[in-house]
Write a structure and sequence with these properties.
single chain; 475 residues; Leucine-rich repeat, LRR (right-handed beta-alpha superhelix); 3-stranded parallel beta sheet; disordered N terminus; leucine-rich repeat; Leu-rich_rpt; transmembrane helix
Length: 475
């Protein structure tokens, strides 16, 4: 009896455990639907151990046709993106970030013509996988419909090149992320692909190992506003950037092996608002008129360049009368001195200068005290003096150098020379000095004239010897 009872209990426990396990397994294969409000809805398929595209839950059919739907497949084991089932909604976003994708089938997104956001980053996608057939809508009346794609993230893959027709059916593409791919060279077909996306506003080419951008890349990108070229192999700022100078607002040029910036570096970028030139280990000099073309610049990040030791006092030449800069960050460079004439420091809203070896001299005191730069530092970000030794470790806002005449407000401004400002004594001495010089000149003139006269008389009075050619003595 006890044996039968024990067997029954054991059987019940096993059934309970099995059912619980089965339920857990089933949960890992089910996407969750979260309705944030009447319009926005999330279909969470992340971390479910999916290796293929699942069917949608039945509740998905309750989505309003005007709804906004986010579908996440983050951190699964999908290797092949097959045809994605249709889903209601006017704007659809899908993320396949951090899977193992090596293949995408033709017409994978044909059921999602309202797909506006597609994230395929951190996979193993090669350029051969990215064909025009994968980014197109359904086939009707002998043509393929376009899809509404606006943002495409292809970062952190294995892309070397792009199909020239990849964006043929994505006319609304405005943001393209190609960063952290081993592109190395923007070949002809890749240039054709990028330039065909004529509505691009954001382009990320950072960490792609490129060192040049062909002119053809930007000829058609008249709407490009944001460009990231960080972490590449540029030894100079590409000249081709001038083709997008009217539209470009933000440029990131960090971590490139560039040695100097000069008056050709940013030519044509007249509407640039924010510029980042940071973490460039080889950059050691910013020359005259470097920033002169940047007539609308508001934010400048010239920081974390560990060998930058010199900025020309004329780096902003021509801009000081029409000053637009509000934020300047010069932190963590190798600067020790800065010119008071570099910029109108009092017109800044924010200034960063920490992490440099500042020599607290009269020029720096002028910048910080008289021109008011000391009031532009953020709280807790006030630079220190590195030299002279007696000021080492002091905040640069605390320096008071008594031998600097700029701090003595009793000094009057220097006036230009004027004859009316001379005193009578000074006028007399001036006349006396001129008279002496004239007299000496006259005396020297008479002396020279006398010497010439004596010399001529001696020459004329000396007899001239004659020789008789018929004389026998000559023979």
């Amino acid at each position: 009896m006890y044996y039968s009872l024990a067997s029954a209990v054991l059987l019940f426990v096993c059934i309970l455990v099995s059912s619980c396990y089965a339920q857990d397994v089933d949960n890992t294969k089910t996407c969750d639907i979260t309705k944030r409000d009447d319009i926005n809805l999330t279909v969470n398929c992340s971390r479910r151990n999916f290796d293929s595209i699942p069917k949608w839950p039945l509740e998905i059919n309750q989505i309003d046709k005007d709804g906004h739907v986010l579908i996440t497949f983050f951190n699964n084991s999908i290797t092949n993106v097959t045809e994605v089932p249709a889903i209601p909604g006017s704007r659809i976003a899908i993320s396949f970030k951090h899977n193992r994708i090596i293949e995408i089938e033709n017409d994978a997104f044909k059921n999602l013509e309202r797909l506006v956001y597609l994230d395929l980053s951190k996979n193993k996608i090669s350029g051969d996988v990215l064909r025009t057939e994968i980014l197109r809508g359904s086939y009707n009346n002998n043509i393929y419909n376009n899809i509404a794609l606006e943002t495409l993230n292809l970062a952190h893959n294995e892309i070397h090149s792009l199909d020239r027709y990849l964006f043929q059916h994505t006319p609304n593409l405005t943001r393209l992320y190609l960063n952290n791919n081993p592109i190395e060279i923007l070949d002809h077909v890749t240039v054709l692909a990028i330039s065909s996306a004529t509505n691009l506003e954001v382009l990320d080419l950072s960490q792609t190992e490129i060192d040049n951008i062909p002119v053809e890349t930007f000829k058609s990108l008249k709407k490009l506003q944001q460009l990231d070229l960080s972490g590449n192999k540029f030894t100079m700022v590409p000249e081709s950037l001038s083709l997008i100078g009217i539209s470009l607002k933000f440029l990131s040029f960090n971590n490139n092996p560039i040695a100097e910036l000069n008056d050709d570096s940013f030519i044509g970028l007249t509407n640039l608002i924010e510029l980042e030139v940071a973490e460039n280990s080889y950059l050691d000099e910013v020359k005259r008129s470097t920033f002169s073309p940047l007539k609308n610049l508001r934010v400048l990040h010239l920081c974390h360049n560990r060998n930058l030791r010199y900025i020309s006092h004329n780096a902003f030449r021509g801009l000081k009368d029409k000053w637009t800069l509000k934020e300047v960050y010069l932190d963590d460079n190798d600067l020790s001195e800065i010119s008071p004439d570099l910029m109108p420091w009092d017109k800044l809203d924010t200034l960063g200068m920490t992490g440099n070896s500042w020599l607290c001299n009269c020029d720096l005191a002028d910048v910080v005290t008289r021109q008011g730069a000391g009031h532009k530092f953020k709280t807790g970000e006030i630079p220190f003096c590195a030299a002279p030794l007696r000021l080492s470790g002091e905040y640069i806002t605390n320096i008071t150098l008594s031998f600097c005449p700029t701090f003595d407000k009793t000094f009057s401004n220097k006036k230009r020379f004027s004859i009316t400002s001379l005193k009578p004594k000074q006028v007399l001495w001036s006349i006396f000095g001129v008279a002496i010089v004239v007299c000496i000149g006259i005396a020297i003139g008479w002396m020279v004239k006398g010497i010439k006269s004596i010399y001529k008389k001696k020459i004329r009075n000396q007899p001239v010897p004659y020789i008789n050619l018929n004389s026998n003595s000559y023979a």
